[in-house]
Design goal:
It is globular and about 40 Å long. With 253 residues, it is mainly β. The chain has helices at residues 40-44, 238-248, and strands spanning 17-22, 25-30, 45-49, 60-61, 71-74, 77-78, 83-86, 91-94, 105-113, 120-125, 135-140, 146-151, 156-161, 173-181, 184-189, 192-198, 210-212, 223-232. The protein is built from two helices and 18 strands.
């Protein structure tokens, strides 16, 4: 019998650096951050922005997934862990794309709060005021709770995870992830699974741009650092969320 070696995922090893000259600038990435190229994680990732890789670049945020959903930067200072958002008018905008119009999904990012402002938008796929227009948004509320808010085209719904007073602390890094499969939404903090909540109705978000660190106009902007932003076209398993947390933790802890 011939044994076939299993496909493996190798985190945190500098296997190679590849530089690809693009029309908008130099795109540099480390091969290890792409996982095994034919793995399930690589295949299902539709957005992959480390945000710390491009110190000379003040204009573009490169998507290293195979879908190339590149964004444009407004403000945000470069840093070793990611981009710093000033809590006023900094944001990154990714144009609408078919690959980002998802039913089931996972969104994840590392965040470091930079000050006393505790009403911070993480990711937001909407362009207009609340109402019947389809959108979704994740954020930390003024009471330091974790929220995932969405409209299904008919009604507005809000899912809340009460983290308790003092859970989120300034100048501390957290890995935040949300997964949605069917009507079930699960939140994770540092790969620890929180209670699963019900989100009824199909999302209708086509045509909406994706914003990182901003809600609508300049309301509820993020203050601090955002890095390792990834979106998948399926709900990752708890083991996969744990893998991504451990594979990127070295940059933040």
């Amino acid at each position: 019998m011939i044994l076939t070696e299993p496909k493996i995922i190798v985190p945190n090893q500098h296997l190679a650096k590849v530089y690809h000259q693009m029309g908008l600038g130099v795109h540099a990435y480390e091969e290890d951050s792409l996982w095994t190229p034919d793995s399930d994680l690589w295949e299902s990732c539709v957005l992959n922005m480390r945000l710390s890789d491009y110190p000379p670049n003040l204009t573009y945020a490169w998507d290293r997934s195979r879908y190339q959903n590149h964004g444009t930067i407004t403000g945000t200072a470069y840093g070793r862990q990611g981009r710093s958002f000033d809590g006023v008018d900094d944001y990154i905008r990714v144009p609408s794309a078919a690959s980002l119009n998802l039913t089931n999904r996972t969104e994840e990012q590392w965040i470091v709060f930079g000050g006393a402002t505790w009403y911070n938008t993480l990711l937001n796929k909407r362009t207009q005021a609340d109402g019947t227009m389809g959108f979704w948004r994740s954020y930390i509320g003024s009471a330091k709770d974790l929220f995932w808010k969405y409209a299904d085209g008919a009604a507005l719904q809000l899912l809340t995870w009460d983290m308790g007073v003092g859970f989120f602390k300034a100048s501390t890094a957290y890995h935040i992830a949300f997964t949605k499969i069917g009507d079930s939404v699960t939140a994770y903090v540092d790969s620890s699974q929180l209670v699963t909540q019900t989100a009824t109705g199909a999302l209708n978000e086509s045509g909406n741009a994706l914003y990182i660190g901003r809600y609508q106009s300049t309301s509820n902007p993020f203050s601090g650092i955002i890095g390792e932003v990834r979106i998948y076209n399926r709900a990752l398993t708890p083991q996969e969320v744990r893998h991504n947390y451990l594979a990127t933790k070295w940059r933040y802890r």
